[in-house]
Amino acid sequence: MNTVQTKQILASKPKKLRINIIGVGKVATTMAVLWHRSNQVHIQSVWNRSISASRQLQHLLPHIEIISDLNDMPPAEIIVFGLRDQILPIMAEKVSRMQWMTPDTILIHFSGALASSVLMPDKKKALTGSMHPVFAFSDIDTAISTLPGHLCAIEAAEAVQPVLQILAQSAGLETFIVSSEQKARYHAALSASANFLVALNHYARNMLESISIPDNLADRLVNQLMLQNLNQLQQFSPAEALTGPISRGDMHTISKHWHSLTTQEQNLYQALAIQTLKLTTLSQAEQTQIKKIINYSQDEIANE
Questions:
Q1: What is the tens place of the pLDDT at every residue in 98-127?
Q2: Phi, psi (5° rounding) for residue 243?
Q3: Distance between CA atoms of 8 and 13, rounded to whole angstroms?
Q4: Three-class SS of residue 56?
Q5: Are 58 and 31 in contact (CB under 8 A)?
């Protein structure tokens, strides 16, 4: 699609885009409220397998119509899917049978890992796009108040991107483009930075609690250090921000760490230590010595 097609798509839409929502999870609910507040779009109707979930959104947006049968959904320029990844193709196929659907209808999902083509594989009955707000949606009220200002990945055909940018900007989000081919790797990177951080926090807390340090003190110790390092990463590269015994090549301390750990704890410590070594300026000989301390196999060392 080219610029002319983009203008045609935008010209075919009314000034206030009508949106139907299918699936009211935390992301869809948050976005719906922010879109409504922007006064740039009209959240028209909602369908959800659980009527009670639809009513929760209606409580926030009293004007919306709750739909119990997809065939009763009114015509709209945009259909937003707030569903789990595995359900998206199934529901999109059902939506494709709605009589008022046109090739200019835009279908959007919020999945970070899936390309937008999952909504309409044949690309004949509708246009597709995906928006992925980069945010931890743990609580809807918090998300509504703090989401604006965050980043949002957009993936769609070039002609559809301006529509998605309008939607993102109306929610106060800053957009960037991700190609459909790279969605899975993009999402893996973000999951590592978010989910694995939480898992690492739990890993460190468990070690402290195992030596009878009270839970609240363990929380403070781990959280404060993590926050300090995250703040450092706002100013410095990972290599510049790195501190600790591995960065210094302190073999004695690393050995004491290793022998204090259970076998299960050693597995994660080893994997993280190998990645940490890549950020250091240690010589090859020093790195090899550390790898031997943490039982990194000779075959793996030889194959590097």
A1: 999 999 999 999 999 999 999 987 767 789
A2: -130, 180
A3: 9
A4: helix
A5: no
